[in-house]
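DEPOSITED CHAIN:
***
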Amino acid sequence: MEPLWFVLVALMITAYVVLDGFDLGAGALYPLLARTEGERRTVIRTIGPVWDGNEVWLIAGGGTLYFAFPLLYASSFSGFYLPLNIVLWLLILRGIGIEFRMHIENDIWRTLFDGFFTLSSTLLAIFFGAALANVMRGVVLGRDHFFFEPLWTNFRTGANPGILDWYTCGTAILALLALMLHGALYVALKTHGVVNKRAHRIAARLLPLVFLLTALGVPLTALVRPRTLSNFSVHPALYVIPLAVVASLVAIRISQRHGKEKSAFLGSCSYLVSMLAGAAVALYPALLPSSSDPALDITIYNAATGYYALRVGLIWWGLGMCLAVAYFIFVYRMFRGKIPEEISSVD
């Protein structure tokens, strides 16, 4: 049961990154995509019907993690207390920025809420990237499986790392650029006119940077934590995952050249899924590795709840996911297609 729940949690986290990722990317690019009030409303309308629903996957993933692997939940929430609180406040500011600016006519207040939207979206992408990098690098776990990390120390990946070091900061930049690319392709898919052209231009400029940082990320991750390649060495067939990452980036480029907006966006989705699949394979069976002693790793076996709870919980999880998936299919079908031309051209 433990491997199955590992896969389920990984799927929910992936769903969150893919779905809320384009919201975050659009928010980070907001000042570059939109220059007039009409264009700002256009960008907001691309994500307006779905952004809050997309965040449900973050809550559901956290709840599933708490249910299936309570030790990991307790350890990570205590060790990452400060950044998790920052993330909570950023999520609140993002919601305020999106909702309030659409109901206030005052230009000064709108500018403030636009700033909230852009800043919170950008920082969320950065913090999520840094969080993944901390998991990939490992933390200094004690024998009780608890740890504490300061926000930063000497920016080195050594015996006394901080949450921010050269590796986690680099991964955070990659995460930001990847989600910005994802958001630009989504906005291009949903809009006409000037905003559409800007989104295409920005995506074309971001793609080479994402490709470069992705190519650097794999060897640097192996350098920081050599154990990340263990599962790939044991099962060489898993090397299809990094090939899928490269193929996804190539597919984005080809689709852009031929003006296939939907294919380009699906290529971006495939890239994010492949990257997260690679991270999951590199970690398995660890959930939170120790940077000092592999024997101290928090794994799916020492962190899992009881077998009976996992078995019964699978039934309720399945029912809940059926409702969630049905809701998302309904919403995305209701709001499929581009924003009407008359809305896109408002000044």
Remarks:
- The beta strands are 286-288, 298-299.
- The chain is about 75% helix and 0% strand.
- Residues 342-347 have pLDDT under 50 and may be disordered.
